[in-house]
Design goal:
With about 140 residues, this protein is of the alpha+beta class. It is about 30% helix and about 40% strand. It has a single domain, classed as Nuclear Transport Factor 2, Chain: A. Strands 2-1-6-5-4-3 form a six-stranded mixed β-sheet, sandwiched between helices.
Length: about 140
């Protein structure tokens, strides 16, 4: 397997195993301890532990959260994934009480990897669609 193929496989594991299968231990295998991560909810995080708290916050708010890779492109140490995210808002999200709303929005994840570990992730999504589906005017306070 080439480095490019291995990096693409790591991003597939990131979404499919860590997020969709809710296997948090996968973070130890593919997320660098010093990761710099900016999620589509606007949170900027540093470190694997902070990243894992972010994952827990999202999965608590949306227990059925799904990350669908629509397209993936990899080159050298970079991987880009065009995504569709969806879930049902069943738990508190920052200061937003559960609405029961079904949400779906599109975006992309931009990643830099080194030695098979995700060192940087920048996720950009159409969060206007998320807030519209939740019936809120803005993102609120989304501290993990």
């Amino acid at each position: 397997m080439t480095v490019v193929q291995a990096n693409e496989a790591a991003i597939r594991r990131f979404y499919e195993e860590l997020w969709n299968e809710r296997r948090p231990f996968v973070a130890e295998q593919i997320v660098a301890d010093t990761i710099r991560f900016r999620g589509s909810l606007g949170k900027t995080l540093t470190g694997r532990d902070e990243f894992k708290r972010y994952v827990q916050m999202v999965l608590t708010a949306f227990p059925d959260w799904d990350n669908k890779i629509d397209e993936i492109l990899a080159t050298d140490d970079r991987v880009v994934a065009r995504m569709t995210w969806s879930g049902t808002h069943q738990g508190r999200l920052g200061n937003i009480e559960p609405t029961g709303a079904r949400v779906q929005y599109c975006g992309a994840g931009f990643f830099r990897l080194a030695d098979g570990m995700i060192e940087e992730g920048w996720i950009v999504g159409d969060t206007q669609e998320l807030w519209r589906a939740l019936g809120v005017a803005r993102d609120g306070d989304l501290r993990p």
